[in-house]
Amino acid sequence: MYVSRKLLTVFLIVVSVAAAIAAYDHLQSQSSTYGDISIEQAMLLIETRPDLVIVDVRTPEEYETGYIEDAVNICVTCDAQELLDNLNPDDEILLYCRTGSRSATAARILNENGYRKVYNMLGGITAWTNAGYTIVSPS
């Protein structure tokens, strides 16, 4: 049977798009979406996800030295249970601390308790400010 090149090309494109959609759907359905992201990826999330919950897990004293706009402060080392008590498992959550260590701990705690859209910003607020991104500085 003869198949034209155009028809074969269209068929291959459709199959490729279908495979890409299936792969994307598979990734979205993975049980663990917790992951480390760069400050650039964090900025993209902030700019494109209006419902993103931004959580600064540093101490209240550290938070008061400056924080990412719209971030709430929930100190992971003060009371880790406070994370679970104050965050919704269905929300998309961006966590950060000073360098990324405490926020990685917080992300792990949330992930182990059923939170699936949790991101840890690598490098923390130190990398954020070093890259020239702004922070809110209380007066």
Short description:
The protein is an alpha/beta fold and 139 residues long. The chain has helices spanning 5-28, 39-48, 60-63, 81-86, 101-112, 124-130; strands spanning 35-37, 53-56, 72-73, 93-96, 118-121.
Topology summary:
Blueprint: H1 5-28, E1 35-37, H2 39-48, E2 53-56, H3 60-63, E3 72-73, H4 81-86, E4 93-96, H5 101-112, E5 118-121, H6 124-130
Parallel strand pairs: 1-5, 2-3, 2-4, 4-5
Quick tags:
139 residues; alpha/beta; Oxidized Rhodanese, domain 1; five-stranded parallel sheet; 6 helices; elongated
- Give the integer mean of the pLDDT values: 86
| Superfamily (CATH H level) name of the largest domain | Rhodanese-like domain
Name the beta content range. 5-15%
Total count of domains? 2
Q: Indicate the low-confidence ranges by residue numbers.
A: 23-33
For the secondary structure, the number of strands is 5
CATH level 1 class label of the largest domain = Alpha Beta
| Cα-based radius of gyration, to the nearest Å | 20 Å
Work out the helix count: 6
CATH topology of the largest domain: Oxidized Rhodanese, domain 1
